[in-house]
Design a protein that fits this description.
The protein is globular and about 40 Å long. It starts with 5 loop residues before the first helix and ends with a helix. With about 90 residues, the chain is mainly α. The chain has helices at about 5-15, 25-45, 50-75, 75-85.
């Protein structure tokens, strides 16, 4: 399976969304990207020569970093709370 399941996605949206069905806020986008990055990292550990997926992983990491920068500039407290709950090293 190339991506996270529908149930996992709904759980992430429910946990990090501000209101019900909030899938577009910055915190939700960062959390969804983190789940996809973790899933793809496991795939790349077994399929080391899958360079197309590796490029996609690097793009997702870059997008998550840009979203984190935006969130830290707009709402620093929410940013600190989010990276703590996701276990990110930033």
């Amino acid at each position: 399976m190339a991506t996270i399941s529908k149930e996992q996605k709904e759980a992430i949206i429910a946990k990090y969304g501000k209101v019900d069905g909030d899938s577009g806020s910055t915190a939700v986008q960062i959390a969804l990207l983190t789940a996809r990055i973790q899933h793809l990292s496991k795939h790349l550990q077994t399929h080391r020569k899958d360079f197309h997926s590796q490029r996609g992983l690097l793009q997702m990491v870059g997008k998550r970093k840009r979203l984190q920068n935006y969130l830290s500039k707009t709402d620093y407290e929410a940013y600190k709370e989010l990276i703590k709950s996701l276990g990110l090293r930033r």
